[in-house]
Amino acid sequence: MNKLRNKVLLKLGLIGVLGILLFNPPFLEIYSGYFGVYPILFVVMFLLWVVIVILGAFVIEKKSTQQNSLPAKEQK
Amino acid sequence: MNLAVIIAVITSLYLSGLFGIARFGDKRAENGKSVVTPTVYVLALAVYCTSWTFFGSVGNATTGGFSFMAVYLGPTFMLMFAGVSLKMIRISKANKLTSIADFISARYEKSQFLAGLVTIMAVIGIIPYMALQLKAIAYSLKVLFPGEVILNGAQFLKSGYFSPDLTIVIAVVLAIFTILFGTKHLDATERHEGMMLSVAFESLLKLAVFIIVGIYIVWHLNDGLGDIFQRAKEIPEVANILSPSSIKYGNWIATLILSGLAILMLPRQFQVLVVENVDESHIKKATWMFPLYLIAINIFVMPIAISGLLYFNGQSFESDTLLLNIPLQNGNNLIAILVFLGGLAASTSMVIVESIALSTMVSNDLVVPLLIRMNFNITKKKDLTSKIILIRRISILLVLFLGYMYYVLVGEAYALTSIGLISFLAVAQFAPSLLGGMYWKDGNKNGAIAGLMAGFTVWLYTAFLPAFGKSGIISDKFIEQGIWGQSYLSAQHLFGVTSLDPIPHSLFWSMVFNIGTYVIVSIFTTQSAKEAAISSNFVDINKNNGSNAKVWRGTASVESIRELLVRFLGEKNTIRRLERFTRIHKLDNIGKIEPNANFVMFAETQLAGAIGSASAHVMINSVVQEEELKINEVLSILDETSEIRAQAKEIQKKSKELEHAKNELIIANEKLKKLDELKNDFMSNVTHELRTPLTSIRAFSEMIHDNPDMELEDRTKFLGVIVKESERLTKLINQVLDFAKLESGSANWEMEDINLKDVLKDTTDTLTQLFAERNQTFIMPEHDDVREIMVHVDNDRIKQVIINLLSNASKFANQENGIIKLDYEVKNNEVKVSVSDNGRGVPEEYRELIFERFQQAGDSMTDKPQGTGLGLPISREIITHFGGKIWVEDSKPGVESVFSFTIPIITK
């Protein structure tokens, strides 16, 4: 159980690291110019942000890990 | 109706609504129905989005482009490191910690000094943030009523007398609300469910308003996003803020770090994330739902900012109130009122939660310890609950008053974002001690105190005081020229570093001093035995399944501890907790409680919920005589505890293994039972099969014996039967023995590579005579393919199978015009051999059964047995050993029967 939880936490952490990399220079400098009239910086930043969040949700809410990954016990 | 009246009515209605929601939440919680669902928890976490987000982000975007996003990306990434927040929650639950000051002090030997220091730092650090909220409300009112006089800082100082403005009225209302719902319980760990629900509602409201305003500005005042960006592209100054070059990377990285830390370290975030957490699994939802909220509330920031820039087209405007100004300029009072309401929600939620968190810290970690130190007879008072609640209420008023004063004195000099970042910088100073304490066992109290003081001093000098300097309250010379004219001490260019903007500059130097001092002092000073025990409990909380090792030795009296608990928790509360203790430790009643380490530490933890861990430790020590433990004794207790835990784990593992073994035994037993049944069947069948020929032999022998005058012809005939039955008996015994050998695996196999074609030819040659005697036609089709079919088998055994199948075919073929056919086919690396006859066929229900021992097709009562009933089971054993299979083909009964087997061929 702990192993599975640690694996989920590790995957989430890696997604976090990926996010930090993508939202910092030099990557940030790449997102210049326009898609038609839309600034690439606007489109890419929100798109990447959504992707990072969806990846996180996928890892943490995956059915096979739901039972044993992160605690689900009432703490009250 | 006058706009002022509408605003007043709406504000009153809104605040009353909040009261109602909070009341509803509290009622439900009192009835044991928690309202803090994962969604409520996530929305309450969105208290992070204050008026800084609501008004400040748009203001920031008008000059800094996408820089504002760093404030929201930081928390997104930090929450992905869910292990950190999870560990914080576990430690807090195990120790009943009520605030970030409590957390840090509990880790470092429950130091009262450290708790007080963190509290002072938090209060000073958060005051600008409080001021920011009040400033936002004041500015909203100023925009809504430009003609009216609202007292600002400068006017206040000049007037020299107190004339209450609307901002202070709102501050007072907020204080009353916070007091009513935030200081209801003494035990802060009992949480504030009503407050959580109302804060969640406010988060929903500010998000909804922001989206409505966004849609209004983008699609009503403009022709959509494309239109806004197209027009922005044509104006170079506006287009510039849409490119990456508008982002200052130093500020960007600093803001990412600060906001990431703020989501954990801000007192209100700690309150919601940790203290108000009712279920650890809520963190799962928070990890992705909270960032989604942040995305939603930020999606319109840039389009609104650009729209404002395009609208005012070079004219000066107040960027922080753009959200309010745009609808007002377009004559849409309804949207303006909504914006005011959204801003009010953003401000009030922050003020409420932050005030509760800070007041808990002020009362638990500053005032109560001071009263204890001053011998204020605190231990002798009968019931102190009402006194402590009063302290908390005064603390709320004090914190709000200080926030108001900061707004009055400094608020005008800074934009909302800058004020917020000063507070973020302050709380970031907690990170080294807090995170270090969670992951580094050697981090100690001296290191934490030194680190915090160093970091905080640098923050005061490089971030907090320059704000006063810039507002003209104190001289601003030190900002550029340093104190005493020493330029290397310049507040915003410390040690000559000029490449960093003020915020990253302050972050860099404060962290260098904070982390450096924490690590160096921790390395060069030693921990006490007690601190070592606590650090082990904190760092290993996950290994210990969220519980602490009980490191305490001394003498205590249950009665005196109970009296102490009653003073701080009240009679009813104390009894409830003691009953819980008896339940946990399986005691009959409260009278059976022993004054041992378990009880003393339980009492201290309960008390910590009311007055903080540091004060609780002092109070408990005032009624018990604790023996000082040496470091090796503590380590031995910890070892013992971890050994017990390891043993418990081992026992759990063993019991699982036993359970598994038990199940395997049950299965094995079932198998044995079945085998026993099979053995019995086998014995009964063998006996039956042996009895048949023996009966014949005996009967014919007796007939010959009893009739010596029997005709020679009859005698010869009878002797023939006896010989035939004896042969059958011998054959049967041989087959039984053979089958037993095969089944037990003790048969000898002489495996070799042989050509199956040769085997088939040899075997059929030996049977040609038999077929001729029975007038049967034997067919074996010729194949064009002359290649060998090499198989790895035992030559005699494979012949045994073929002979058995051909004999059976001969036996069951049509009596008058018998046709027996043998054929083979090579397919998919195996050879399939089929033997067919034109006999009565095998009915479907017997096709599997005939491979069982002593089972033959047909009616056992009427049909004469045609063999021993072991030929096919033996054939199956042999073919299975060769890695093949044998079966009866699907054929029409009464027409033919086809038996086939396959064996793998050797491929070169």
Low-confidence stretches of chain B: 149-154, 156-163, 859-865
Strand content of chain A: 5-15%
- Percent range for helical residues of chain B? 55-70%
Structural class by SSE content of chain A: mainly alpha
β-sheet strand percentage of chain B: 5-15%
Please, what is the average pLDDT of chain B? 84
Give structural notes.
The complex is a heterodimer of chains A (about 80) and B (about 900). Chain A is mainly alpha-helical and about 80 residues long. Helices cover about 65% and strands about 5% of the residues of chain A. Chain A contains four helices and two strands; from the N terminus they run H-H-E-E-H-H. Chain A has helices spanning about 1-20, 25-30, 40-60, 65, and strands at about 35, 40. A two-stranded antiparallel sheet of chain A has the order 1-2. In chain A, strand 1 (about 35) and strand 2 (about 40) form a beta hairpin. In chain A, helix 1 runs antiparallel to helix 3. Chain A is elongated. Chain A starts with a helix and ends in a 10-residue tail after the last helix. The model of chain A is unreliable at about 70-75 (pLDDT under 50). Chain B has about 900 residues and is mainly α. Chain B is about 65% helix and about 5% strand. In chain B, strands 4-6-7-9-8 form a five-stranded mixed β-sheet. In chain B, a hairpin with a 2-residue loop joins strand 6 and strand 7. In chain B, helix 3 (about 50-65) crosses helix 16 (about 300-310), helix 20 (about 415-430) packs parallel to helix 24 and helix 25 crosses helix 30 (about 630-705). Chain B is elongated and about 145 Å long. Chain B starts with a helix and ends with a strand. The interface of A and B includes residues 23, 34 and 56 of A.
